[in-house]
Design goal:
It is a single chain. With 518 residues, the chain is mainly α. The protein contains 19 helices and two strands. Helix 8 runs antiparallel to helix 10, helix 11 packs antiparallel against helix 12 and helix 12 packs antiparallel against helix 13. It comes from Ignisphaera aggregans. One of its GO terms (molecular function) is NADH dehydrogenase (ubiquinone) activity. It is found in: Cell membrane.
Length: 518
């Protein structure tokens, strides 16, 4: 089923970003840029809602650029996996857009919103594309805008330093993925992900406009996997590539800090799932390597869980605290998705949704205190006068700990069940232990949030926090509503389970259109 919206939307957002830059030369009204960016973010969100409904009702959606079928042209292909994550990404971007309208007061607002729309375009492009090289292109669109946003406060030496470090290691990481794309084309004679997935399982397969297999396909597949995995672990901030997140997140504007933990990290999760279950999943030439690969991912996940859990305990900067909290939860996500079972993938997806909303909610809430008293955890008591933000911190912390009936409880329950069903008792022990360790830090946040402080800073934004409150309330509502729906609605539980099952077991559907002559 073809739908042009999945391919046109990222290009539309890039066009709007360029238009905003041009308009910034003649229009100086900051409110115009806020409204312009927010309207286009709402459009992207509505498109993502439309797409997931279309995928659920009609199956996989395709779009061939220029009318040229894959693998001759670039194909965008959306199944339930990337439709779900696309909706999550646009939801967080919309919340950050609303929050930005309150937070941003800088005279260079048009530059901020240009980068904001570009980052949104890159995120959707990465999630919706079905072309291995186009993924790299959209990854660069996403990365370049994120580097610039870390350095947005260019008067701050720390922001510039963090952006340079982030950009340097990010460019190296992206280069590894580009090299894996070269290897893919040289070995498989194609860059269409569906075509690679087909030929990885049937080396004698012949598709229209595509070359044949060349050389030792097992060796080249292993090289592709190794190079791409480095990129995915970097984007997901998983050990050993976690170090950029605690440096970049504190220096970025607070709404962008929420985007880093809520959107950019999920690109790494998505890339890992797509690589190891769609391209090189069951029955592929890399099947004999999968046990070793997943063992490595398990180890990386475990190390990330404890690095994040222990290091968040010693943080005094609340933004760095949230960054390490994110690293710990992403470690759990990688442990779940590397179980090589549908239940593990479903659990990782639900925990990705839970963590994206919860960590973003923490940023939105503490951002109000940061404007007032700075980033120290010891002065979070400034939020006692901001009941909405204080409620946001409480709900976010309870969700991260996993208190029922919030979404975080159900996602951790699914991870627990996946470990139990696969006989990985050590995983259950790690889940419980890491939750206990992290809870010490989370209760420290709660204690300081309710402790009275003095020395408030005057800031015009604090006179009217309606937009910030709206973003916080919507994020709270998302965590409570999705958690309640998962508990009460068999349809929601079945959908999450079905997404994991289709990713792991029904991988043929992803490349089935190739056998139909594209």
């Amino acid at each position: 089923m073809q739908d042009p919206l999945i391919g046109i939307t990222p290009l539309y957002l890039i066009a709007m970003a360029f238009l905003l830059t041009a308009l910034g030369l003649v229009i100086k009204n900051t409110k115009f840029f806020k409204v312009f960016a927010l309207v286009n973010t709402v459009i992207a969100f509505m498109v993502s809602v439309y797409i997931i409904r279309k995928v659920v009702d009609d199956g996989i959606q395709l779009y061939f650029f220029g009318g040229y079928p894959a693998p001759l042209g670039i194909a965008y292909e959306v199944d339930e996996l990337n439709a779900l994550l696309g909706l999550l990404a646009t939801s967080i971007m919309l919340l950050s857009g609303i929050y930005s309208a309150w937070y941003m007061k800088h005279s260079r607002a048009y530059l901020y919103y240009t980068l904001f729309l570009t980052l949104l375009a890159g995120s959707l492009g990465c999630l919706y594309t079905g072309d291995y090289f186009n993924f790299f292109v959209m990854l660069e669109v996403l990365s370049l805008s994120s580097y610039a946003l870390v350095a947005y406060f260019r008067d701050s030496p720390k922001s510039i330093e963090a952006a340079i470090r982030f950009a340097f290691v990010g460019i190296v990481s992206s280069s590894f993925y580009l090299l894996s794309a070269f290897i893919a084309y040289a070995s498989f004679g194609t860059l269409a992900m569906a075509d690679i997935a087909l030929k990885a399982r049937n080396t004698n397969a012949v598709t229209q406009f595509s070359g044949g297999i060349v050389g030792n396909i097992v060796m080249t597949s292993a090289m592709m996997v190794a190079l791409a995995t480095w990129t995915w672990t970097f984007k997901a901030a998983v050990f050993p590539n976690y170090f950029w997140l605690p440096d970049a997140v504190p220096e970025a504007p607070t709404p962008i800090s929420a985007v880093f933990v809520g959107v950019i990290d999920l690109i790494g999760v998505y890339g890992t799932i797509r690589m190891f279950y769609t391209l090189f999943g069951w029955g592929s030439v890399a099947s004999q390597l999968r046990p070793y690969i997943f063992t490595i991912l398990q180890i990386l996940g475990v190390v990330s869980v404890f690095i994040g859990a222990f290091l968040l305990l010693i943080q005094e900067d609340v933004k760095r605290f949230i960054a390490y909290s994110t690293i710990s939860h992403l470690g759990l996500i990688f442990m779940a998705l590397s179980l090589d079972v549908a239940e593990g993938v479903s659990a990782s997806l639900l925990h990705t949704i839970s963590n994206s909303f919860a960590e973003s909610l923490l940023f939105y809430s503490v951002g109000v205190a940061i404007v007032s008293v700075g980033r120290s955890i010891n002065v979070l008591g400034a939020l006692r006068r901001r009941r909405v933000a204080l409620a946001g911190i409480v709900i976010a912390i309870l969700n991260l700990i996993g208190v029922p009936p919030l979404l975080g409880f159900w996602s951790k329950y699914l991870i627990f069940k996946a470990f139990l069903d696969t006989g990985r008792i050590y995983g259950i022990a790690i889940l419980v232990l890491a939750t206990g360790i992290s809870a010490i830090g989370y209760f420290k946040i709660l204690f300081n949030a309710f402790r009275p402080v003095e020395g408030f800073k005057e800031d015009a934004r604090l006179r009217n926090t309606v937009l910030a409150d709206i973003a916080i309330v919507l994020c709270i509502a998302a965590l409570i509503t999705i958690g309640a729906l998962y508990m009460l609605s068999p349809g929601i539980r079945e959908f999450i389970s079905r997404v994991g099952y289709k990713v792991v077991c029904e991988y043929k559907a992803y490349y089935e259109f190739l056998s139909l002559g594209s």
